[in-house]
Amino acid sequence: MNKKVLSLVGAGAVFAAGLTGTAAYAGGNHHTAKKPTVVLVHGAFADSSGWNAVVQRLRKDGYPVVSAANPLRGVASDAVAVRALLDSIDGPIVLVGHSYGGSVISKAAAGDKDVKALVYVAAFLPKAGESAADLSGKFPGSTLGDTLKSVALPGGHVDLYIDQAKYPQQFAADVPLSEAKLSAVSQRPIDQAALAEDAAGAQAWQSIPSYDLISGADRNIPPAAQQWMAKRAGAKVETVKGASHSVFVSHPGTTASFIEKAARETVR
Hints:
Blueprint: H1 3-11, E1 37-41, H2 52-60, E2 65-68, H3 75-87, E3 93-98, H4 100-108, E4 115-121, H5 132-136, E5 148-152, E6 158-162, H6 167-171, H7 177-186, E7 190-191, H8 192-196, E8 210-215, H9 223-233, E9 236-240, H10 247-250, H11 252-266
Parallel strand pairs: 1-2, 1-3, 3-4, 4-8, 8-9
Antiparallel strand pairs: 5-6, 6-7
Helix pairs in contact: 1-3, 2-11, 3-4
């Protein structure tokens, strides 16, 4: 039994409820598709279902897809969970992260030779010592803090949600209102400490080709901050003018095409 299958037995069950797509997990998680597997990692205040329209397009074009259930508990621990998922997949991978998910994939893919491209979607690209909170505040424009509601948990932890009434305008201003309201209800909270947790060690974008889809009217991560991070990383950039933080929901075709571009250019 190879390393990846062993890893799945030990840790892959963490993600069992969040897997979506055509990754052919039957038969020891092997697939024979020539195209790379696309792994999608959502961020805070979202869930795996937000990728559904992107998944449909990728699958139609022949890509195996896995949509991971990001725990949203902390950068380091979330990265361990995502890395276990990556280790369960044979063959090349294009790894995609939205928002806080960008911090997670930057850590999870470090040193992973199977990850051929990183795609950031309205996301963070931190260096060691930087947190999501640091980067979102580096440039003016984020209004997220004024929309948050907190829930105290046992052990001193605090979960953060976006106020449901404010969610459509804050997170998904260009998504149909009825759909944005549903997302407000199904949003998954993030541990407050995760947003303040510094990235540590090598970041995958420092050695793996990176692509950055920037949301031009983002109220969570200011577009200027996204552009600054992308330039620092030497990422290939596409900006979607007028797009909210939910650019992957409002522009699924553009998002899928951008991911496929990364796959074509990096997987030979």
